[in-house]
Amino acid sequence: MPASRPLMLLPLLAGLAAVASAVAAPDVGRGPAAIKAAQSASPPVSEPARGRGRPLVVIDPGHGGHDPGTLAAGGSVAEKRVVLATALAIRDALVRSGRVRVALTRADDRFLPLTERVAIARRLKADLFLSIHADSAPNRAARGASVYTLSDVASDREAARLASRENSADRFGGLDLRAQAPDVRSILADLAQRETMNESAAFARLLRQQTDPVVRFRTVAHRFANFSVLRSGGIPAVLYETGYLSNAADAAFLQSAAGRRAIAEGARRAVEMQLARIATGPRPAP
Q: Which helix (DSSP H) or strand (DSSP E) does residue 130 occupy?
């Protein structure tokens, strides 16, 4: 090799190193302090041009990183990819409409603990929390969307099974009631949680009403169970199972541009109606 060849290669090698340094490293191999610092940073909020001060919805694409979620039949498609594409479509629909502000708990393929997803919504002082998922079942004929809200007691065995699968050992939090006497803390927490659950149930109904014409729902579409990711500390929250990846028809719909568009438009209408209802009307009595 001529002596000048190594010198000619130096700019190329420097360029490759710069490109490599710009690519985000996965969590695997990073130290606990680096991971904690990355997780504690709040994601950007998408705002319309005149939208500062408007209500904020946090959209949470489930799973991510080393947690693929459920897999489509044959294992070729992971839930984490499908729900991220759906969440991005919902965000884009809301931003185009311009009535609310939007933030995502993740906008790429990264892992977030359930507690951190909820913490993001609380740090941003969100008005609504929407967690996006896709289901699976041993029965390949099972299909249709469902909307879940928080409850100590599951609505049915399947809801309990799903909550058990999704949950970790996260603790419910949000209200700082340490200065109150124990009995008062309990009463205030119960009242606040009941009001939040009422708002969550109202949003679940809107989500089905505004999406049902174009998205197939299960016969019993609103279910409830003790989901860790819905322990949002006073923020109305729902978990939206958009369909079954184990069903060929649902999986094709969820992976199609038309399917994402239908889900996104229905979710946009429901989010805007729920936030307008909370802002302008009296909350229902517990």
A: strand 128-135
